[in-house]
Write a structure and sequence with these properties.
The chain has about 725 residues and is of the alpha/beta class. Helices cover about 45% and strands about 15% of the residues.
């Protein structure tokens, strides 16, 4: 039997993982270390050498794309069909299981699967039927709550009611939602996983059947599994040592959506006869990039530990650029991209990575100004985002009350109690009279042809627009935008959204204020339009320009979360400042801070040849000029791996801004390091969150278990390392 195709292309640790005896196995695969190759070759080895039937293989991953790639590579390697193999995503395989056993799962055979948008529509209808005010109980917040409970394996009936009004109300909605879905034969994505787990848990004969069938279970991206996914895997492998998982604790960056990195540590407890194999040889990045990334991630305490290396040479030093503001940062990045292209580089090999979606706007603007095609990966261009279009719709109504698309977009956004029938009545009158929706609304109110609630809501909306127009008439453009964000209710709406999405939308609204502040109304104003009209035209034109198609040669823009799994020859990691990256919310929470550091590690290891790190000495955030310190992640990189670069040509720096000194020394030069546990005679045990200053001025920010967060001068604090 020829097995050279299976083991010949592998390095020694990869070969060890592929050919290991059948037992619980954790492959700790570093960035760019060939984890998919190991998973595919392990399956091929078990079939060709171990004699397993493809019928007895189960392989689980997170995306349809990854599942297709796995199938194709197995078929290419073995020359056989993967038709009988269960290879797919968690959701896809759970759906397959439920279709086969709908009766045992207490589902109708014709049950329908809802995507996220369908689920939100159902929740909106339910909230309306329960007379819930959408302003106080946003449907997206309800959706987030329900899915989070299901991801943890919790039904409404299992939870104890507390005195907390929010929790009581959410539980009541969750219960009503479950009843509605059961009556209608509807299943959402989170329900697929929960129901599949319950199906096996509550049917011992069925569980035994699948345990006998799946002799080997393989899992990709194991660090991204949530509670219910891991519970499902444990059921299938209960009493056996046949779980093969590939993951990287250093790339666990999805805690905010339920992923539990702790599953990697739990695996070792639940499968005591396990083996751990580390893949540390990187086939993507240069030595300097890897050494810097290794140093940054080593500051995390909650990790198993590994050290990426390469035999591809040291490569170029990491470039650091200190911009004096966010505009200078964008100019610098685009200037370097132009130089890259002029030297024969491809735009497809360039990525601009950032922590927050709101950061994309200036890069988009500067790329457009230089005629450089770009694509926003995994997201929308700035002016096409829903929250931005909502704000612009309000602004357009200030400029023109008869803008029907804008009227329709925001007449009930945020929700103000205007029913669908009332909106239909407005449309009907407008069509019959051949007038605008605004005029039709006035007519309906005057003729008293609306119900009391709808009449009150519509009157309030018309008055709101008139009042906003009056209040903003003498204001500067950016003040107009700021006032509209607040008084329209949009900012309040997004503040109520749980999770990162609400924060991101608020950041985007603030970035719209910044866009208005920087807008040059004098340019191309031949028609002598108002500043607001010019800005709205600019937004409409910018929304549709220079966005490259998927296969065009264009620069890639994306958040750090979207960049996972990708690689580029030239990478810019922008906005490396305290308060932005890591975020302000993470600074006082060691678990969130460590996830932010993992996110930085992921960003750095996307770079193959060149890595630029940029930060701005001042940045306008939330409408205010902010002077931030460089990110602690920059200070964690050894100074010998970094070269500071300057913009080509002359830059006029404001005299009032003194360039801050960045402490580039390695952590070994300090007495303490970030993330270290320390003891204090008065405050007790704590963890070091930040270190700054040198010598007698060195101080630390420490999160004490009992006393909270405190800054202490290290010369006097008498800290003890624990």
């Amino acid at each position: 039997m020829d097995i050279t195709r299976i083991i010949y292309p592998l390095n020694d640790p990869q070969r060890l993982a592929v050919t290991a005896p059948d037992r619980a196995l954790l492959v700790l695969a570093g960035a760019g270390s060939g984890k998919t190759r190991v998973l595919v070759h392990r399956i091929a080895w078990q079939i060709q050498v171990g004699g397993l039937s493809p019928h007895s293989i189960l392989a689980v991953t997170f995306t349809n794309k990854a599942a297709r790639e796995m199938r194709n590579r197995i078929e290419d390697l073995l020359g056989l069909s993967t038709h009988t193999m269960w290879i797919g995503t968690f959701h896809g395989l759970a759906h397959r299981l439920l279709r086969r056993h709908a009766k045992e799962a207490k589902l109708p055979e014709t049950f329908q699967v809802m995507d996220s948008a369908d689920q939100l529509r159902v929740i909106k209808r339910l909230a309306g039927a329960l007379n819930l005010d959408e302003g106080k109980w946003p449907p997206k917040q309800i959706q987030w709550y329900i899915n989070a409970q299901k991801d943890e394996g919790k039904r409404a009936r299992h939870q104890l009611e507390t005195g907390d009004f929010f929790q009581r109300q959410m539980l009541a909605v969750y219960k009503a939602y479950e009843e509605l879905c059961d009556r209608s034969g509807l299943v959402d994505f989170a329900e697929l996983l929960l129901r599949a787990h319950e199906l096996l848990r509550d049917n011992s004969d069925l569980l035994a059947f699948y345990q006998r069938r799946f002799l080997q279970v393989h899992v990709d991206e194991f660090q991204d599994t949530n509670t219910i996914q891991y519970a499902w895997l444990r059921l299938l492998t209960e009493g056996k040592d046949n779980l093969f998982v590939v993951g990287d604790d250093d790339q666990s960056i999805y805690g905010w959506r339920g992923a539990r990195m702790e599953n990697i540590f739990s695996f070792q407890k639940h499968y005591p006869n396990h083996q751990v194999i580390k893949l540390e040889q990187n086939y993507r990045s240069t030595g300097n990039i890897l050494n810097a990334a290794n140093k940054v991630i080593s500051m995390n305490e909650a990790r198993m530990g590994k050290e990426l290396w390469t035999d591809a040479g040291e490569g170029e030093l990491i470039s650091l650029y200190a911009a004096f503001n966010e505009l200078d940062e964008a100019y610098f990045v685009v200037d370097r991209i132009k130089a890259w292209v002029n030297e024969g580089g491809s735009r497809n090999d360039v990525a601009i990575l950032y922590r927050s979606n709101a950061q994309s706007r200036l890069f988009e603007e500067k790329l457009m100004a230089t005629g450089t095609p770009y694509r926003v990966y995994g997201g929308l261009r700035f002016f096409e985002r829903a929250e931005i279009k909502n704000a612009l719709a309000y602004l357009r109504l200030l400029a023109n009350r008869h803008d029907d698309p804008s009227f329709e977009r925001v007449v009930n956004t945020p929700a103000r109690g205007l029913g669908a029938k009332a909106v239909d009545d407005i449309r009907l009158i407008a069509k019959d009279r051949e007038i605008s929706l605004w005029s039709a609304s006035l007519e309906l109110i005057e003729l008293n042809r609306l119900g009391p609630r709808s009449k009150h809501a519509l009157t309030g909306f018309l008055q709101l627009i008139d009042n906003l127009a009056s209040q903003t008439e003498e204001l500067a453009l950016f003040e107009k935008v700021q006032l509209v964000n607040e008084h329209s209710g949009l900012a309040a709406l997004y503040k109520t959204e749980k999770g990162d999405r609400g924060e991101e939308k608020l950041e985007n609204l603030e970035e719209l204020v910044n866009a208005a502040r920087l807008f040059d109304a004098e340019q191309d104003n031949e028609a002598f339009l108002s500043e607001l009209d010019l800005f709205l035209a600019h937004a409409a034109l910018e929304a549709g320009e220079m966005q490259g198609d998927e296969f065009d040669d264009c620069v890639q823009l994306m958040t750090l979360h979207s960049a996972k799994g990708l690689e580029f020859k030239l990478v810019f990691l922008a906005g490396m400042e305290e308060g932005l990256f890591p975020s302000q919310q993470s600074s006082d929470d060691i678990a969130r801070l460590e996830e932010e550091r993992r996110l930085c590690y992921v960003g750095m290891t996307r770079a193959m040849k060149q890595l630029y790190l940029t930060y701005a000495e001042s940045r306008r955030i939330y409408g205010k000029e902010s002077y931030s310190r460089p990110s602690r992640f920059l200070r964690e990189i050894p100074v010998e791996l970094i070269q500071e670069v300057r913009m080509r040509g002359h830059i006029n720096r404001p005299l009032a801004i003194e360039k801050p000194k960045i402490a580039m020394g390695s952590a070994n030069e300090r007495r303490f390091k970030l993330g270290q546990r320390v003891g204090h005679t008065k405050f007790g045990e704590g963890v070091i969150l930040q270190l700054e200053g040198e010598g007698a001025q060195e101080r630390a920010q420490i999160n004490f278990k009992q006393a909270g967060v405190k800054w202490l001068m290290l010369n006097f604090a008498q800290l003890e390392a624990l």
